[in-house]
Design a protein that fits this description.
The complex is a heterotrimer of chains A (about 240), B (about 200) and C (about 700). Chain A is α+β, with helices and mostly antiparallel strands and about 240 residues long. Chain A has helices spanning about 5-20, 25-30, 35-50, 75-85, 100-105, 140, 170-175, 200-205, 235-245; strands at about 65, 90, 150, 155-160, 180, 185-190, 210-215. Chain A has a two-stranded antiparallel sheet with strand order 1-7. In chain A, strand 5 (about 180) and strand 6 form a beta hairpin. In chain A, helix 3 crosses helix 9 (about 235-245). Chain A is globular, with a radius of gyration of 19 Å. Helices cover about 55% and strands about 10% of the residues of chain B. A 3-stranded antiparallel β-sheet of chain B has the order 1-3-2. Chain B has a 3-stranded antiparallel β-sheet with strand order 4-6-5. Chain B has helices at about 1-30, 35-45, 50-70, 95-105, 105-120, 140-150, 180-190, and strands spanning about 35, 75, 85, 125, 160, 170. Chain B is mainly α. Chain B contains 7 helices and 6 strands, in the order H-E-H-H-E-E-H-H-E-H-E-E-H. Chain B has 2 domains: about 1-95, Arc Repressor Mutant, subunit A, CATH 1.10.10; about 105-195. With about 700 residues, chain C is α+β, with helices and mostly antiparallel strands. Chain C folds into 3 domains: about 10-205, Aldehyde Ferredoxin Oxidoreductase,  A, domain 1 (4-Layer Sandwich); about 230-440, Aldehyde Ferredoxin Oxidoreductase Protein, subunit A, domain 2; about 470-695, Aldehyde Ferredoxin Oxidoreductase Protein, subunit A, domain 3. The chains are: A alpha+beta (about 240), B mainly alpha (about 200), C alpha+beta (about 700). Chains in contact: A-C, B-C. Chains A and C meet through helix 4, strand 2 and helix 5 of A and helix 4, strand 13, helix 7 and strand 16 of C.
C-alpha cells in the first residue's frame, strides 16, 4: 500500500466513528479558516508526492476537566494553582482554566442588569475549560509549526514550547479563547491536564471541578469568539488529501 | 476440597471488604453500624447465601478478622442491643458516646452533654442544640425530659438560665456558678453577635 | 522585573495636583517595612508633616499590598489604606483602613505593590492602571454617582476584569464616615472622604503580569497545601458549630456552620454543604456561612453561595437572595457582605417584632447593604448605629433637631423597626442633609463635640462599646481581658486586630487552649476562660505584643488578620496545633528572603513601632500612657457592682490594668511610665533615624 492508501484506510476507521465524513462540517471549517477551495486544490499535488507530513492530531484525549458553575465561588484558586504550580509564578491571566473573565459579569462581559451572570448579576460564574477537542483540533491545526501535539497516554493537546514560535495563531483559532500566551517566555500554552492530576481540580475549595473521562463538549458549549485563524496551506492540503474520498 | 476452600477464601475477602466499607460509610454519615445491619446487607447483596448457620459462622469469622486487620475499625461495648462498630477515620469517640447514649438513656445523654460542656469548655448549652442533629428531639420531648430531671435526685445539678433574647440555656452547677453560667449564655446568645 | 519574588517591584506615586506619575523601587526603598501598613506608615513619617489635616492636599493616602498578595498563599487578598484619619478626634492622626476583594491581586499583576496618592486634583478624576499604563482621567461624569454605577461604567470602558475601588456620594461630600469599596462588597472604612477631598473618585486597575515565587514550585505547592490543611473556618475557628461525626469538639460560637443537611438553599439547584471534614480541602468553601451565623438558620434558605477576596478559600462574604425585598422595598433581591457590613441595616434597630433571627432583621440587612455599599457609608464598627440608638432613646435627637427636621423623619416606622425607615436616614447621611445626618456623618468624636455631649458619658455606658478618640472597642476586655485592653489602647481608631480573639474564640476546650497558649506565649496563664478572669501576668503581655505585631505583619504581607495567625488547627492528629511560623515560611519561600518566625516578627515590630512614632510625633507628646493609651470607664464597671475577677464578670481592676499597661510597655522596650519607646528600642529595630528626629523634639522614652 502506498502512504495515501494507508492513510485512507486508517482514516476510514477513525472518521466513521467520529462521524466527520459529513460534507457540511468540512466545508464549514474551511470557510471559518478563511481559506479558499481553489487555493487548496492547487497545493494538492505537493502532498501526493509524499513530502513532509504536517501534524494532524487524530487521537482522542482520554480525560477532560469539567466544571459546575453553580458551585464556583469565584476565588480564582484554580487559576493560581494552574500557574504557580506549573509555571512557578502567579499569573492568572495566562491560566489554562479561565474564570476571572466571567467573574464579574458573566461570559458576555457586560453588565446588562440583574439577569446577567457573575457577581454583579445572578451570581453564577462560568468556568471556561479546554475541551481537548477531537479531530479536527482547531488550535493544533492552525499552528504553522506543528507545535501543538498530543502527549500520551492521556493524549491531552499540549503546546510543545520547543516548537512554538509565538505567532499566536492558535489563540485566534480556538472558538472558546482557551489558549494562553506567556509574553514573558513568548510561548503559547494551554491545558495539558497536568498529566492526569489536574492542579485546578485539586485546588478548588468548592468541589466545582472534576476530572473525568473525555467527552465531546465542542457542540455543547457556545463559542466565545469567532475564530479568525488561518489554516497553514500544508495542513489544508492534508485535510483535502484525507477527506477527498 | 481445595476448590471449595478457594471459593470460601474469596467469599471471605469479599465479606471483609463489605464489612469495612459498610462501617466506614455509616460512620461518615454519622451512624454506628450493628451486626444485624451488616449481616442483612451481605444477605441482600447475595454475598452470603445458603445455610443460615454456616453464613452466620462465616460472617462472625470475617467480622473478627476485619476488626483485627484495620486499625480504624473499632468495636463499642455491648449495652444490651448488641455491639456497635465505627471507623475512627470518620467518627470520633466523643460522637460515638452521644450516639450510644441516645440509644439507651436520653435523660442521661442530655445531662452528660450539659455537664461536659459546663466542665470542659466551659459553657452552658442552648436548648436549641438538642433539637438539631444528632439529638433531634422535639420541643415536647425535650420539655418532658427537663421536667423529669427536675424531679430526680441524680439531676439536681442541671439548671436553667434565660438570656436577654429569651432563649434558655442549661448548665451543670457542679461546674458553673449561676452568675457565670448566665454571663456565658448571654455571650453566646447575644454578646458574640454584637462583637463581630 | 522584580528583584525578589513576591513583590511586583514598583510603588506608584501619583501627584493629583501636578498630574505627575512616577514610581519607586519597592525592594530598594520599602523592603524593611514589607508593604501594606508598613509602606503607609513610612510614607507618612517621611513625607507628611505633623499638623497636616486629613482633607489638606498635603495629606497622602497610601494603598499598600504586600509580597504575598496575588499569590496562592491562602487568605492574601488584602489592601491596607493608610492616611490621616478624618474621624480621629480631637486631633487627626495616622490610621489604616483595610479592604479585601480583588484590588490587591490586580494591583500586583499590574506590576505595583502600592500606590501613594498625593495632592489634590482640580476637578473630579479617577486613576486608571492598566498594566504599565497609568493615567489620571476625568471623572466628572461619575461624580455624584454611587459606587455601583461607577464600577459598572468603568468596567464597560476597561473590560469586565477591571477592579474598581470607588467612593460614593458620602466620600464625595467629605463625610468622615465614608468608605472606599471594590468588588461589590469589599470596603475599607474611614478613608472615603480623604479620597473625596482629593477629588479622586476611583482607582481602576487591571493587570496581566505575574507575581514571581522565588522558591521552587514544588516547595511552594507543598507549603500552600500545608497552610490549607491547617485552615479552619472564618476567623480560624477550628471546630464545627454543632456536634459532627468527625469532630471531638464543637462550639456555638464557631463560624464553621457547614454540615450535612445545611444547604445553600438559594443556589439552583440547592447544594448541601456536606460533611465538611477538615481533611477535605475541596470543601473549605462550604464551612463558613456568615449570613447563617449572624442572621440565624433561616439564612440557609436564602444563601446562594459564599464570596470573598481573590485567592481565599474561606468565602466569608455570603451572597443571599431574598425575593421579598424586591417587591417590598424596590431593591435588588441579591445582596452580599459579612460582619459589620452585613449587619449595617439591622444594627440601627433595638429589636424586631419577629426577633433577632427573623425575616424583618434579614430584610433590614438587605436594605442597609443596598444603600451603605452604594453611597459608601461607614459604620465605624457599628458605632454609628449604637450612637444613633443612644441619641434616639435618650431623647437627644428630639432635643437637638428643630421641630421641622425632627418631624421629617417617620419615627413611627422606626419604633416599629420598619426597615424602610433606613431610606429616610441613610441617604441623608451620605448627602449631608439636615442636622442629624450631618452630626452622624462626622464620627462619634466630632458628633459629641458638635452637639456638646459628654465623652465621659459615652465612656461610662458599656452598651455603647465606645473606647476613645471617637472610636469603639474592637475585641477588648469583654472577651480577652487585659490583652484586649492593651490592644485597644494602641491605635487611633478601633484596632482592627483579630490575632487574639481568633484564638480565644476558636472553640477548643479550655485545657487545649491553655496548652497551645503555653507553647506560643510561654505560659498557659496567657489566657483566661471567658468571664473567669485572673489578674495580669507576663503571659498576657506577651500575647498582646504578639497580637499587635502579627496584625501589622498581616496588614503588610497581605495576609488576612481575620483568618490568622494559625496557632490552632482543626486537626486532632496534630493535637489541634496549627503552625505559628506560617507567615515566615510563606514569606521566605515566596520572596526568597529567608526569615525565621522571630526575624519576621521583628519586622512586624518595626512596623508597629513606626505607627507608635507617628502617633507620638503628631500628638507632640511622649505622655502616651495618660494622653493616648486610655481606657474607658465601662471597662472597670460591673452592673451588679461585683468585685473584679469574680466568675461571671468581665470588668477589670484599675490597678491591675495599670500594671498591665506597664508590663506591656516593658515587653515592648518602652518607658514603663510614659509608654514612649526608648531610643535603643527604635535603634534595635532599625529605626535610628526616627529615634533621632523624636529625640530632637524630646519625645523619646
Amino acid at each position: 500500500m502506498n502512504h495515501y492508501e494507508e492513510a485512507q484506510k486508517l482514516l476510514g476507521k477513525v472518521l466513521g466513528s467520529l462521524g466527520l465524513d459529513d460534507e457540511l462540517s468540512r466545508r464549514q471549517f474551511l470557510k471559518l479558516s478563511g481559506f479558499s477551495i481553489i487555493g487548496i486544490t492547487a497545493l494538492g499535488p505537493g502532498l501526493a508526492k509524499g513530502s513532509a507530513k504536517p501534524l494532524i492530531i487524530m487521537e482522542q484525549a482520554e480525560g477532560i476537566v469539567l466544571a459546575d458553575p453553580t458551585r464556583c465561588v469565584g476565588c480564582r484558586r484554580c487559576e493560581l494553582a494552574c500557574t504557580e504550580f506549573n509555571d512557578g509564578k502567579a499569573q492568572p491571566s495566562i491560566s489554562r482554566i479561565k474564570v476571572n473573565r466571567n467573574i464579574n459579569f458573566g461570559p458576555k462581559g457586560l453588565y446588562t442588569g440583574r439577569d446577567s451572570l457573575g457577581n454583579w448579576g445572578n451570581g453564577l460564574i462560568i468556568q471556561d475549560l479546554c475541551k481537548q477537542c477531537p479531530h479536527p483540533v482547531p488550535c493544533a491545526n492552525a499552528c504553522p509549526n506543528d507545535a501543538i501535539v498530543v502527549k500520551p497516554p492521556l493524549n491531552a493537546r499540549v503546546v510543545d514550547p520547543d516548537r512554538c514560535v509565538g505567532c499566536k495563531m492558535c489563540q485566534k483559532a480556538c472558538p472558546w479563547e482557551m489558549l494562553s500566551f506567556d509574553s514573558e517566555k513568548n510561548k503559547a500554552t494551554k491545558c495539558f491536564l497536568c498529566d492526569g492530576k489536574p492542579k485546578c481540580v485539586e485546588a478548588c475549595p468548592a468541589s466545582a471541578l472534576t476530572y473525568a473521562s473525555w467527552q465531546d463538549l465542542t457542540e455543547k458549549v457556545p463559542p466565545r469568539a469567532v475564530p479568525t485563524a488561518v489554516l497553514p496551506p500544508a495542513k489544508a492540503a492534508a485535510c483535502i488529501d484525507c477527506h477527498k474520498k | 476440597m481445595s476448590d471449595r476452600h478457594d471459593i470460601s477464601l474469596q467469599t471471605k475477602e469479599t465479606i471483609i471488604d463489605v464489612i469495612a466499607e459498610s462501617i466506614r460509610r455509616k460512620s461518615q454519615a454519622g451512624q454506628l453500624a450493628s451486626e444485624n445491619e451488616i449481616f442483612q446487607e451481605l444477605l441482600n447483596r447475595d454475598i452470603l447465601k445458603g445455610d443460615r448457620e454456616e453464613s452466620q459462622r462465616l460472617f462472625k469469622e470475617a467480622l473478627e478478622e476485619t476488626l483485627n486487620r484495620y486499625e480504624d475499625l473499632e468495636k463499642l461495648p455491648d449495652r444490651g442491643e448488641g455491639p456497635r462498630f465505627y471507623s475512627s477515620q470518620f467518627m470520633t469517640q466523643s460522637y460515638t458516646r452521644i450516639l450510644l447514649q441516645k440509644e439507651t438513656d436520653l435523660l442521661l445523654l442530655i445531662a452528660e452533654v450539659v455537664r461536659e460542656n459546663s466542665a470542659v469548655y466551659p459553657r452552658p448549652v442552648s436548648l436549641d442544640l438538642f433539637g438539631d442533629s444528632p439529638f433531634n428531639l422535639s420541643q415536647d420531648q425535650l420539655q418532658g425530659y427537663l421536667q423529669q430531671m427536675a424531679k430526680e435526685e441524680g439531676y439536681r445539678d442541671i439548671k436553667q438560665t434565660t438570656t436577654s433574647a429569651g432563649n434558655v440555656f442549661l448548665y451543670s452547677s457542679l461546674h458553673l456558678e449561676p452568675d457565670y453560667a448566665s454571663m456565658l449564655a448571654e455571650w453566646f446568645d447575644v454578646g458574640q453577635f454584637n462583637n463581630p | 522585573m522584580a528583584k525578589h519574588g513576591g513583590w511586583a517591584g514598583k510603588v506608584l506615586r501619583i501627584d493629583l495636583s501636578t498630574g505627575r506619575i512616577s514610581s519607586e523601587d519597592t525592594v530598594e526603598k520599602y523592603k524593611d517595612v514589607l508593604g501594606g501598613t508598613g509602606l503607609g506608615y513610612k510614607v507618612l513619617w517621611e513625607e507628611v508633616a505633623p499638623g497636616t489635616k486629613p482633607f489638606d492636599p498635603a495629606n497622602k493616602i497610601v494603598f499598600g499590598t504586600g509580597p504575598l498578595a496575588g499569590t496562592g498563599a491562602p487568605c492574601n487578598g488584602r489592601t491596607a489604606i493608610t492616611t490621616l484619619w478624618p474621624t480621629c478626634w480631637p486631633k487627626p492622626l495616622v490610621a489604616s483602613g483595610h479592604m479585601g476583594g480583588q484590588f490587591a491581586a490586580e494591583l500586583k499583576y499590574a506590576g505595583y505593590d502600592g500606590i501613594i496618592i498625593e495632592g489634590k486634583a482640580d476637578r473630579p478624576v479617577y486613576v486608571s492602571i492598566m498594566d504599565k499604563k497609568v493615567e489620571i482621567k476625568d471623572a466628572r461624569h461619575l461624580w455624584g454617582q454611587g459606587i455601583r454605577r461607577t464600577t459598572v461604567e468603568l468596567s464597560q470602558q476597561f473590560g469586565p476584569e477591571v477592579c474598581v475601588a470607588a467612593i460614593g456620594q458620602a466620600g464625595e461630600n467629605l463625610i468622615p464616615m465614608s468608605v472606599v469599596m471594590n468588588a461589590y462588597s469589599h470596603s475599607a472604612g474611614g478613608v472615603g472622604a480623604v479620597m473625596g477631598s482629593k477629588n479622586l473618585k476611583a482607582i481602576a486597575v487591571h493587570g496581566t503580569g505575574s507575581v514571581t515565587i522565588a522558591g521552587k514550585k514544588e516547595e511552594w505547592e507543598k507549603l500552600v497545601k500545608l497552610h490549607l490543611s491547617l485552615l479552619g473556618a472564618n476567623n480560624q475557628h477550628v471546630v464545627p458549630s454543632s456536634p459532627q461525626p468527625w469532630a471531638e469538639y464543637y462550639s456555638p460560637g464557631s463560624r464553621w456552620k457547614g454540615s450535612r443537611g445545611n444547604k445553600w438553599g438559594a443556589s439552583e439547584p440547592a447544594i448541601d454543604t456536606g460533611i465538611c471534614d477538615p481533611h477535605d480541602l475541596n470543601t473549605i468553601a462550604y464551612r463558613t456561612n456568615n449570613a447563617a451565623f449572624y442572621l440565624g438558620d433561616i439564612a440557609w434558605k436564602y444563601t446562594v453561595r459564599g464570596n470573598g477576596c481573590t485567592g481565599c478559600p474561606i468565602r466569608c462574604h455570603t451572597m443571599i437572595k431574598v425575593p421579598s425585598v424586591a417587591a417590598k422595598y424596590g431593591i435588588s433581591e441579591v445582596g452580599m457582605n459579612t460582619c459589620g457590613g452585613l449587619n449595617f441595616g439591622r444594627s440601627f434597630f433595638r429589636k424586631f417584632p419577629d426577633g433577632a433571627r427573623g425575616m424583618t432583621s434579614m430584610e433590614a440587612c438587605m436594605v442597609g447593604m443596598h444603600m451603605s455599599d452604594d453611597y459608601g457609608l461607614w459604620c465605624n464598627y457599628s458605632q454609628l448605629q449604637r450612637d444613633f440608638l443612644k441619641l434616639y432613646e435618650t431623647g437627644i435627637i428630639k432635643n437637638k433637631l428643630g421641630e421641622k427636621e425632627f418631624n421629617s423623619y417617620s419615627w413611627d416606622k422606626y419604633e416599629k423597626s420598619d426597615p424602610s425607615f433606613l431610606f429616610e436616614l441613610l441617604p441623608r447621611i451620605a448627602l449631608k442633609q439636615g442636622e442629624l445626618a450631618t452630626a452622624l456623618g462626622l464620627g462619634t468624636g466630632y458628633m459629641l463635640e458638635t452637639w456638646s455631649l459628654s465623652e465621659e458619658e459615652w465612656k461610662k455606658d458599656n452598651r455603647l462599646s465606645y473606647w476613645k478618640m471617637g472610636h469603639p472597642k474592637h475585641h477588648a476586655s469583654e472577651e480577652v481581658g487585659q490583652c484586649g485592653v492593651i490592644i485597644n489602647t494602641q491605635y487611633n481608631r478601633d484596632p482592627q486586630c483579630h490575632s487574639h480573639c481568633n484564638f480565644t474564640r476558636n472553640g477548643l476546650p479550655l485545657e487545649l487552649q491553655k496548652r497551645l497558649a503555653a507553647e506560643t506565649w510561654g505560659t498557659q496563664d496567657a489566657i483566661d476562660a471567658l468571664g473567669s478572669y485572673t489578674p495580669m501576668n507576663i503571659g498576657k503581655a506577651r500575647m498582646a505584643k504578639w497580637s499587635l505585631i502579627r496584625k501589622e505583619l498581616h496588614d503588610s504581607l497581605s495576609l488576612c488578620n481575620w483568618m490568622g495567625p494559625w496557632v490552632a488547627s482543626p486537626l486532632k492528629e496534630r493535637g489541634y496545633r496549627g503552625d505559628d511560623s506560617m507567615e515566615s515560611m510563606l514569606y521566605s519561600v515566596a520572596t526568597g528572603d529567608p526569615k525565621s518566625r522571630e526575624e519576621l516578627d521583628r519586622v512586624g515590630e518595626r512596623i508597629f513601632l513606626l505607627h507608635r512614632a507617628l502617633t507620638i510625633r503628631d500628638m507632640g507628646t511622649k505622655e502616651m500612657s495618660t494622653q493616648h493609651d486610655t481606657v474607658p470607664e465601662w471597662v472597670y464597671n460591673d452592673q451588679e457592682k461585683r468585685p473584679a475577677y469574680t466568675k461571671g464578670t468581665t470588668h477589670l481592676g484599675r490597678d491591675d490594668v495599670k500594671l498591665a499597661m506597664g508590663m506591656f510597655y516593658e515587653e515592648m522596650g518602652w518607658d514603663k511610665t510614659t509608654g514612649a519607646p526608648r531610643a535603643e528600642t527604635y535603634r534595635r529595630l532599625g529605626l535610628a533615624k526616627v529615634a533621632e528626629e523624636l529625640g530632637k523634639k524630646g519625645l523619646l522614652g
